[in-house]
Amino acid sequence: MTLVVIGPVTRDLIVIGDEKSQRIGGATYFQSFVFEEFHNDYLAIVNCSDEKLVDEFPSSDKVKVIKKDDTHFFINNYPFEDDRDTREQFSNFANIPILPSDLDGILPSEIDGFVLNPLNRYDFPGETIEYLKSFDVPIFASVQGFLRLPDVQANENYTIKLSKFDELEDILSGVDVIFLDEKEKNIIGTEYDVGEMVITNGSHGSRILSDKEIKIDAVPCVNLVDTTGCGDTYMAAYVSQKLLFKPPEIAGNFASKIASEKIENYGPYNFKS
């Protein structure tokens, strides 16, 4: 059975202090490297306009492209080189929704679960969420993208602001595990009909809310190199353990370890090291 990981692939500009670099990004991209190592039976489905972006994935034969007329673009600005918990984000807010008709015919016949990685509120309309729930398999969802709105500026890219919206409760209802950070948790609260809520807090670790609260310490990294995609890596590592029926504490500690290993290397998780 196949784990289906869905969400945009992006073109990113990373700014750390005075240094700039261009690269491929998006949660589904970063997570594919983790699943390549820890849950090899997966399929990544991405929405973008440039099909060549899938060449950057660890196994391009495990990626399907929903061709759209735009591609997400993000600027991740870390103004303080020694503080990677502080980040400013800008985006073009591509309006390229993934619709049930896009997924019909490309999903595998047997599915382990869905991992949903919206990067803005347009990516997964309510009708798509309901369609995926109809498969009656575990759903793991990142909350961040559902909260993102453009804070309009006088330039082509918009500052990202986060805001709760009325439909969020219906979207998340029945989802097995949701992932968010402490800032996002403060925006939406904790009263949702979900199996588990995994709340990350950068170098301060994470906590898991299920039938009780479980605190997970961050695993210190020896050499801080690249934090972009760290939360996505944590999420994928956590999901890989849940699919093995591991309890939340074991899954969280494993995810913290893998996220720390990713931080010590440039780019996505280096599964070959």
UniProtKB/TrEMBL annotation:
It holds the Pfam family PfkB. InterPro entries: PfkB_dom, Ribokinase-like. SUPFAM superfamilies: Ribokinase-like. Residues 196-270 form the Carbohydrate kinase PfkB domain. This is Ribokinase. The lineage of its organism: Archaea, Methanobacteriati, Methanobacteriota, Methanomada group, Methanobacteria.
